[in-house]
Amino acid sequence: MRYYGRVFRPPSEAYSLILQATIGCSHNKCAFCSMYKEKKFRVRPLAEILEDIDNARANYPLIERVFLADGDALILPMETLTTILKHIRKKIPECRRVGIYGSPRSILRKTPEELAKLHSEGLGIVYLGLESGNEEVLARMNKGETAAEIVGAGQKVKAAGLALSVTAISGLGGTEHWQEHAVDTAAALSAMKPDYIGLLTLRVYSGTPLEKMVKEGIVTPPSPKQLAYETRVLLEHIDSEGSVFRSNHASNYLVLAGTLNRDREAMIAKIDAALDGKERFRSYVELGF
Ligand code: SF4
To answer: Helices 78-91 and 46-59 sit at what angle, rounded to 10 degrees?
Structure first.
């Protein structure tokens, strides 16, 4: 396999074959994100992608999942995506699921029929970054999409029969806007009812616009206790029956996992135990800060 620069994938794609269909992120301007800063967005030549599939087949006897990277591979034209999916199906017949990152823009550009077609060709899951349901927080973080657009994109993915995984970032509103961030994020998630919800925690990476905002006092990252309280408010407001909820990313101080709405009270009880000092927050060292 040939990889260009650092490659990222969702935690649930840890055992997947990562196939770079695009290089970098088509937006690449979110204030908090450092993932693809060193890469200029481009589409890889189709022949190279198909060759990588052939090489993977020759080298790995069992490939059950494939993840199409980088940041927004769903932006590829239909013809390219269907050719890739068909080639995966032909060369890797045991593959049970193909996943992809999709920006709201690339999802909204595709018709419902096109998304359904991708599903029928083997695409199984789309990973969508909500980050926050609050319009002001999204604008401040230069997400380039409104919460309404992101929710519409998520609903469109689900309507096409694809599984939907959505991430939000705890602490993204800072201590200044934590409450509206929590309440509006809960509302956006409730409107999409994703199959999977991943709650990450804000980390301030050096060289990002967010780092500058923190230095200038525009955004104050919340403490572990404040983050726990914010998550409590989010869980109190969410209504997303059947969504698998996880805050077990390397960035999270408190590991929570359950299925909504069934396990909401148990997760809130765990937060309360942590706020009362009966449950341990993971330390900076454990989180690798
Ligand atoms: S958060 Fe996602 S959309 Fe924003 S710059 Fe990073 S990869 Fe691109």
So the answer is: 20
